[in-house]
Design a protein that fits this description.
254 residues; mainly beta; five-stranded antiparallel beta sheet; 41% strand
Length: 254
């Protein structure tokens, strides 16, 4: 009997180690509640549509590249120009060249219905820190397109121009991230208007994160209990895991 109980405890220890390893693994999932220090805006955004949800890079990752969903000019039809913006997020400690970013996470807010996604444009080094929009003013009885293109500034001083369209004018720059870089996005998109004039993406807001992000760490609290009926010499184990959440503030910028 003592040998049986000893074997069961050994088995339990192995299972506990496996659960602990699995609980410690991290996958690049989007972080909806990530702390940010600045909401970036520009003065010339369009006015039509409704704001989508704020979408954030996973904890410990920052936007180092972007791509656009663009409808090319269609001639005498209803143009919508810029329809969507994706941020491509890499680990805070990434030091490779842009073509070596194989492990990255992509996030976007609301997106219009027209166009195709362009190729990713990466900062040569560092992260995205500021942006400006090219926006067409309301055309009255003419065809409105609202936002047409976007340009980003990288933390090491370089600039990235999107592959958007050319209607409208460039507005002023947003504030520059004072922390690590851009880590989130929210877009203003007009829903399809049926027989009316469609504009798709009108405006965008970016979010900056810095050192000392708040990390939410999940743990499995596992407990086991030995039960049995001594009269019948039958024994067994009950095994239960409770998922708990702990908030930790790190100083390494993760």
């Amino acid at each position: 009997m003592h040998q049986f109980i000893s074997m069961m405890f050994s088995l339990l220890a192995i299972i506990w180690l496996q659960v602990s390893v699995q609980a410690g693994e991290r996958r690049p999932e989007r972080s909806f509640s990530r702390h940010y220090i600045l909401e970036q805006t520009v003065p010339n955004g369009g006015r039509w549509g409704s704001w989508g949800h704020r979408e954030m890079c996973p904890i410990g990752m920052y936007a180092a590249g972007f791509s656009l969903k663009v409808e090319n000019p269609i001639g005498y039809g209803d143009d919508t120009a810029l329809n969507g913006i994706r941020l491509h997020c890499v680990n805070k400690n990434s030091k490779g060249l842009p073509h070596s970013y194989h492990n990255y996470a992509s996030v976007h807010s609301d997106v219009g219905s027209w166009g195709r996604w362009t190729d990713i444009k990466w900062c040569p080094s560092g992260f995205l820190t500021a942006f400006q929009l090219r926006v067409e003013r309301p055309q009255g009885l003419g065809d409105d397109t609202a936002a047409n293109n976007i340009r980003f500034k990288c933390s090491r001083g370089s600039f990235l121009l999107g592959d958007g369209t050319n209607w409208g004018n460039w507005g002023g720059w947003s504030n520059t991230c004072g922390g690590k870089g851009i880590c989130g996005i929210k877009t203003l998109v007009e829903a399809p208007q049926g027989g009316g004039d469609d504009t798709a993406l009108n405006d965008v807001r970016m979010y900056c994160c810095t050192y000392g992000d708040v990390n939410v760490i999940k743990h499995l609290d596992c407990r086991a209990a030995l039960f049995g009926r001594s009269g019948l010499s039958e024994f067994g184990f009950s095994f239960r895991c409770l998922r708990t959440t702990r908030t930790a503030r790190r100083s390494d910028g993760s």
